[in-house]
Design goal:
Blueprint lengths: L3 H15 L2 H17 L6
Length: about 45
């Protein structure tokens, strides 16, 4: 299990990475690609 400090460090690093425009675009592209591959599961 991670310590509070380790969790804080991971969250800070994640925040920095996901705030970068190129990383945001890669995430959006990956999500859109995944949505195109999977059939719609409507509940």
């Amino acid at each position: 299990m991670l310590t509070r400090e380790q969790l804080f460090h991971l969250f800070e690093r994640f925040s920095v990475l996901t705030s970068q425009p190129d990383v945001k675009k890669r995430i959006v592209d990956a999500v859109l690609d995944e949505q195109n591959l999977l059939p719609c599961q409507c509940w």
